[in-house]
Specification:
heterodimer, A: alpha+beta, five-stranded antiparallel sheet, 7 helices, 13 strands, B: alpha+beta, seven-stranded mixed sheet, about 30% helix, globular
Chain lengths: ~325, ~425
């Protein structure tokens, strides 16, 4: 396999990987990253350039046979009413996403955490694993202790996760420009049909219900901050090369790691979805997700839904690691299987 | 409904620069245990030689009739069947035209018709097969199977039989049996091979009845007609060969038929190898693909094998290639690939050795049959070893040191020749023989 020609980001001049839609350093959109039929473009076979439609669901090119991702790179947890699927994707050499999913004593209770290691940092994968494990462990205690304030505990869990990230050793590297180990975090505590979401960075939470879907988190990104401050309208902000650059994360170079908190009580049955940007880059609007799910049977299990979403992101290119947690919520006291 | 499964044995790790990928595909078909007997639609035809030579000794024709009647008795009720007799012409023995639906009355009438057969005339096998082909007609989805018996060589001019085989191929399967020693192994093998059947020698006429009964019982056990092995290989690659390696060696490479995509267009990367009808059984295939080498750590699909029944894939397996600079990984030879490479070479060494012996090239015959003895010893081919021992004196089986026997019975040479393609299965439980242990 010959080395593809190197290109640089128009905004920050950092080196780009072939097929990048966004600069991994500053988040700038890469001009001309559309189309298919040539090696390195979105979703095309990395070896022969066959279009994305030629990539089989098992990851092998149906034209030249090249594997589009390493095998054994997917991990899954199935709790029946909740499930997590994490996949390396088709381009990244390793999975820098991490997750934690744990059920409580009471039917339907669960905690979930997804962390996305920042790939321009050193050891982003270690940061993500440490943060997900620490935050997940702390939140799980809230399930057993009915008196604990879930919102307060979420803030504390995210701070503890940040401390764990800061302690991740920084390996010696010649690439001095790299950031220290860092990651995003999104978490959910589902206790007695109450849901508390915490987030920092651009991993997201969605509520998917039969009557509609909505996003529960606000990205800590350049685009969101610009539009929130009234400086640009959302469309202008999203079109800016810096749109995807995240503004807050867990790591030693961020001072305030207080997460956004959102608490709500679902008023009907639905599904809570947590995901890394490896999924929502391909389905940014809640309606896009509903469209994907419309192809599944209404009674599809959480695992089937999670797999279908991850597979959809793979089929559409899988440029990033993809992690999805799905938790089925039945508020009328119907205990989900 | 028959369940098919396909499994792969291979060492997917290749050294850098390697371009050849080898794998053994094991296909196992298992009938639904709920269905006590097969009710598959089937057409069975018995083709019996009534040329003049069948009359001497008289016991030969008598045994052939007995065997044909035994085969008729094995035909399940509801199966279409026919008996035809051939010499230098061919006649429908039962029914007078077309095929009959088996029931006790039809079987009795068929037996009576067989009893009236007399011997006389030459041997023109192409004519027999042409009539059989007509009688099979087009019965889509049905199992179409014939048993052909002869005791002599084909009397048709060169090329006639080959033309007939080319036009019959794919229409029906044919198991061929030669009785006595006046027939030619290579001729019957050519017929059996073209018509996806087996070939064997029945040295004494008395053995025919048992053989025919076994053949018809096996045919009645088939539940799925027209199974194809479909092989996808990547663009830029080449199928070096596809061989059935168990229960017998049969080179399928030249039988490849370009497959079609769902939209009807030819699929340039996919070919089908017809494998005929299947019962409860397991067959193994050695697939060898040549493809461009890739970089260290790269993984690619070298082949995708599907079992096709009625245009549907009923089982699938992947042949992989992963290039590595780790020699511990890449130098390990898969035991199944090693075993069946030896089995295929064994069949070839026997056939080449016997041909050299017939040609009077004693040096080449000794070398080839010596190699055969060595491979039979390595592979655990006890049956083949016994047959070899009737043709050569074995001084050292491990080294393959042999001497040609001066007086070899024709029947022994022909038995070795016809059964040279029979293989033994790899001993999966055998302890690994890692180098250095």
């Amino acid at each position: 396999v010959s080395a593809p020609p190197a290109t640089n980001c128009e905004a920050c001049h950092a080196a780009l990987l072939p097929g990048d839609r966004f600069c991994e350093v500053c988040g700038a959109r890469v001009a001309g990253a559309e189309g298919d039929g040539e090696p390195g473009l979105e979703g095309a076979c990395h070896a022969c350039g066959a279009p994305p439609s030629a990539i089989g669901l098992d990851g092998y090119c149906t034209r030249c046979g090249a594997l589009q991702r390493a095998p054994g790179d997917r991990s899954e947890v199935d709790l029946a009413f909740a499930a997590a699927v994490s996949d390396q994707g088709r381009v990244h050499r390793r999975n820098e996403d991490a997750f934690h999913l744990e059920r409580g004593e009471r039917a339907g209770d669960a905690v979930a955490v997804i962390c996305d290691g920042i790939s321009t940092s050193r050891s982003g994968h270690l940061a993500a694993r440490a943060a997900a494990a620490v935050a997940g462990g702390m939140l799980a205690r809230a399930l057993g202790d009915g008196t604990a304030d879930a919102e307060q505990l979420t803030v504390e869990a995210v701070r503890a996760a940040d401390e764990a990230v800061v302690r991740v050793p920084t390996p010696a590297t010649t690439r001095a420009a790299l950031a220290p180990p860092s990651c995003t975090l999104v978490c959910a505590t589902c206790r007695d049909r109450e849901v508390v979401i915490g987030s920092i960075g651009d991993s997201r939470a969605y509520w998917l219900a039969p009557e509609g879907a909505r996003v529960l988190t606000v990205d800590d990104s350049w685009a969101t901050e610009q539009s929130a401050a009234g400086l640009l309208d959302p469309e202008q902000a999203a079109a800016d090369p810096r749109a995807h650059a995240i503004t807050r994360w867990l790591g030693p170079d961020v001072e305030d790691v207080t997460p956004q908190i959102r608490a709500f009580s679902p008023d009907g049955p639905g599904r809570l979805l947590l995901c890394s940007d490896g999924l929502w880059n391909y389905a940014p609007a809640p309606a896009d997700l509903l469209e994907l799910l419309a192809q599944l049977p209404a009674k599809a299990s959480a695992l089937v839904v999670a797999r279908a979403l991850v597979d959809a992101a793979l089929v559409r290119g899988g440029r990033d690691n993809i992690t999805v947690v799905v938790i089925d919520i039945a508020p009328e006291g119907r205990s989900p299987q | 409904m028959t369940q098919f499964s396909a499994d792969i044995d291979q060492n997917e790790y290749l050294p850098l620069g390697a371009t050849e990928v080898n794998a053994i595909v094991t296909v196992t078909a298992m009938d639904d245990p709920e269905a006590a007997t097969s009710d598959a639609k089937a057409v069975e035809i018995v083709i019996v030689d009534v040329s003049g030579s069948m009359g001497t000794p008289r016991s030969k024709l008598r045994s052939a009739k007995q065997a044909t009647k035994a085969a008729i008795d094995c035909v399940r009720d509801g199966v279409d069947f026919a008996v035809i007799a051939g010499d230098d012409s061919v006649e429908a023995v039962y029914p007078a035209s077309g095929t009959a639906v088996a029931d006790p009355g039809a079987r009795a009438r068929a037996r009576d018709a067989v009893d009236r057969l007399t011997a006389g005339g030459g041997t023109e096998i192409g004519r027999w097969l042409t009539l059989a082909d007509d009688l099979f007609g087009s019965a889509p989805g049905a199992i179409r199977h014939a048993i052909l018996l002869t005791d002599g060589q084909n009397g048709e001019r060169a090329g006639v039989l080959e033309d007939v085989l080319a036009s019959c191929a794919g229409h029906f399967q044919c198991d061929c049996r030669g009785v006595g020693t006046d027939w030619e192994v290579s001729e019957l093998r050519k017929i059996a091979s073209a018509l996806l059947g087996t070939v064997d020698i029945v040295p004494e006429p008395e053995g025919l009845e048992r053989e025919f009964r076994a053949l018809m019982e096996a045919a009645m056990g088939k539940a799925t007609a027209d199974v194809a092995l479909r092989l996808w290989t990547p663009q830029g690659s080449k199928v070096a060969f596809v061989k059935q390696v168990a229960p017998t060696v049969e080179d399928l490479t030249d039988r490849a038929v370009q497959a079609r995509k769902p939209d009807g267009d030819l699929d340039p990367l996919t070919v089908d190898y017809p494998t005929g009808a299947w019962g409860d059984e397991s067959r193994e295939y050695h697939v060898c693909v040549q493809m461009p080498a890739r970089a260290a750590g790269d993984e690619a699909l070298a082949g995708r094998v599907k079992l096709m029944v009625d245009g549907e894939a009923v089982s699938e397996a992947k042949i992989l290639a992963i290039w590595t600079d780790d020699e511990v990984l890449s130098t390990r030879i898969d035991p199944a690939v090693a075993h069946y490479s030896g089995q295929a070479e064994l069949a070839e060494a026997i056939q080449d050795g016997l041909q050299a012996r017939r040609d009077g090239d004693e040096r080449l015959a000794t070398m080839k049959l010596g190699r055969a003895v060595q491979l039979a010893a390595e592979g655990g081919n006890d049956g083949t070893m016994k047959l070899l021992a009737r043709v050569v004196e074995i001084d050292d089986p491990v080294q393959g040191t042999v001497r040609l026997k001066r007086n070899v019975a024709e029947v022994d040479e022909m038995s070795l020749d016809t059964r040279s393609t029979k293989t033994v299965r790899v001993q999966k439980s055998a302890p690994p023989t890692a180098p250095g242990q």
